[in-house]
Amino acid sequence: MVMDFKEGDIKIKRIQSASSINTFKQCPRKYFYSYVLELPTSDNIYQVRGNIAHSALEHFFSINTNHIDEHNYEKHLKVAMQELLVFHWRAEKERLDKLKLPEDKIQHYFEDTLHMLIAWVDLFCRKIRSAKKSFKEAFAYLTPIAEQHFISRKFGVQGFIDAIEIQDGKTRVMDYKTSSSSELTDEYLLQLSIYTLLYHEKYGKFPDEVGLYLLRHGEKTIKADEKLLKLAEKECLEIHRRTLSDDIEDYPLNPGPLCKWSTGQCDFYNICFKNKKINEF
Ligand code: SF4
Q1: 3-state helix, strand and coil shares in percent for the chain, rounded to the nearest 5
Q2: What is the pTM of this model?
Q3: Which CATH code fits 2-42+144-242?
Q4: Given CA atoms 195, 199, 204, 206 in this order, what sign does their dihedral have?
């Protein structure tokens, strides 16, 4: 989204996101190709299965709980999640086929994704048990507000928040992650700080916590406070200041392990290192 307006003291060229800011921090040249030139990027299995897992989780809360047995809900919820995964996996068949991965690799990623989602259902069932309500009441109580788009025109940043949970008078802003990381990395911290800013600007108050469902490892949350808000403000000001230019020379290459790895390479590797022309892209 490219625009050219001034808001307060910030000159905003385009609306940013946690992803665009993290891309710039990783490699300014990659940011230039992705967000200034808007060159197309290719899918990879991690993106596709991440999208599929998000769809399954989002639709999980729309399942009909009327026919689910109060004493056997755990098994029903796991079957429902498996069915949702199969449905959304099939819906993305075209994208999966384009990856041209061997059948056994695709099967491996399907099973790996199922394993993560079932681990999340286990966590959810523990919450149902501790809610001390009937199954149906607990399910409704634990259902979050899903997939909300937030935008701050003041700081020129936006985000799609996966889940806003309001329980026991507390509000948590949560995101689902399928990556293997078990820690709140700097990239995740930046994302959570931006969600804090977006929520704070929209509602005029902090959520109690922001956090992640690291689907392989459980959940991690941190307090949403002034410090997190200031981090987001600082990063937003910095990215706008450093991305006003359309000159490639203002976006240096940052060669490193994310240029090329054992199973793939950056979308722009051939431009950076193999003399491929941008207009051939
Ligand atoms: S190949 Fe490396 S240097 Fe080039 S854009 Fe990608 S990450 Fe940056």
Answers
A1: 50, 20, 30
A2: 0.91
A3: 3.90.320.10
A4: negative
Ligand 1 geometric centre to CA of 256 (Å) = 8
Q: Which two tokens stand for residue 160?
A: 């799609």
Of ligand 1's listed atoms, the one at least distance from the Cα of 254 is 3
> DSSP string spanning 216-258?
TTEEEEEE--HHHHHHHHHHHHHHHHHT----GGGS----STT
Euclidean distance between CA atoms 123 and 23, whole angstroms = 32
* Domain residue limits, the chain: 2-42+144-242, 45-142
Q: Which of 26, 33, 253 to mutate to test the pocket of ligand 1 (most atoms within 8 A of CB)?
A: 253
In order along its 281 residues, the chain shows pLDDT tens digits of 445 445 556 789 999 999 999 999 999 999 999 999 999 999 999 999 999 999 999 999 999 998 898 889 999 999 999 999 999 999 999 999 999 999 999 999 999 999 999 999 999 999 999 998 999 999 999 999 998 999 999 999 999 999 999 998 999 999 999 988 888 999 999 999 999 999 999 999 999 999 999 998 999 999 999 999 999 999 999 999 999 999 999 999 999 999 998 778 999 999 999 877 777 66
